Amino acid sequence: MRIAQIAPLTEAVPPKLYGGTERIVSYLTEGLVELGHEVTLFASGDSVTAATLAPMSAKALRLDPSVRDTNAPLALMLETVYRRRHEFDMLHFHLDYLPFSLFSRQGTPMVTTLHGRLDLPELQPVFDAFRDVPVVSISNDQRKPLPQANFASTIYHGLPEHLLTPRTDTKPGYLAFLGRIAPEKRCDRAIEIAIATNTKLKIAAKVDRADVDYYEQKIRPMMDHPLVEFIGEINEQQKPEFLSGATALLTPIDWPEPFGLVMIEAMACGTPVIAFRHGSVPEVVDEGITGYAVDTMQEAIAAVDRVKALSRARVRQQFEARFTARRMAQDYVDLYERLAHGRATELLVAAE
């Protein structure tokens, strides 16, 4: 198939550091190329891919202070894709609802993966207006706030099988928190769990501009405890050692997590997960196999001991069975073929 992947321009594909959506776009794009498809990636010019890169900005907009209106490159990208739509069998967007109006009025099959939270009230009228536009959820729980949306499939994220692997020469000896420090991620809970269990906690996370006040007022004072070590943001190359050295990854979230990429990153390294039962957690964590989903701080504290009995080899095996990029890419190909066949049928009926 001739497939267009249309990525956000905020980060490169893959991103240099944090950027969950852009990393998934990268893994999917490379997986589709490996499966033999002709893929064009519309993304920032500093992206790296085996597909054909169509650069839509000189570099990732987050890293380019010369760009003051970030909507302008995005608008131009949508117009460029529209003008080139006849070159493709499938247009796959990763821009939330932004393509809906323009691309629902043309004939090339399209689909949009929804990467974020969907429980915001302002989304309701948007999806009321575009009930026929096919979208993909990244967990079944993510769908709940928008029953009117045209969900074509739920496709779980995946990682390249050998991107993150267990470090067998590393002995687990601490709890880990990975990702982003924000109110909904509840790093404060992670610190409290570590202190309650007298276990060292290593925090590898970024602080977005929007969360600086929260970090300074709430989290930074808690990091003075001797059990807590703040590492900061880490890259892909640093993750295997960081995660392999952890007894468990703590994901004490307090929001409807759409998927939670950090959980399968830990599993890829053979590291079990202790996560609060919100959003996608019960779908991603196999209870008693890859970790535990908990409802209270007391359960989370108890799980720190329980998780030590889990087989790290079994955790890795479950990752290979459920969360590889190849499985994700094949799931999308199956969906593309179904949507393309359905669109062709619609056009044939309309022509009769």
TrEMBL record:
Residues 18-119 form the Glycosyltransferase subfamily 4-like N-terminal domain. InterPro entries: Glyco_trans_1 (IPR001296), Glyco_trans_4-like_N (IPR028098), Glycosyltransferase_grp1 (IPR050194). Pfam families: Glyco_transf_4 (PF13439), Glycos_transf_1 (PF00534). Residues 169-310 form the Glycosyl transferase family domain. This is Glycosyltransferase family 4 protein. It comes from Teichococcus aerophilus.
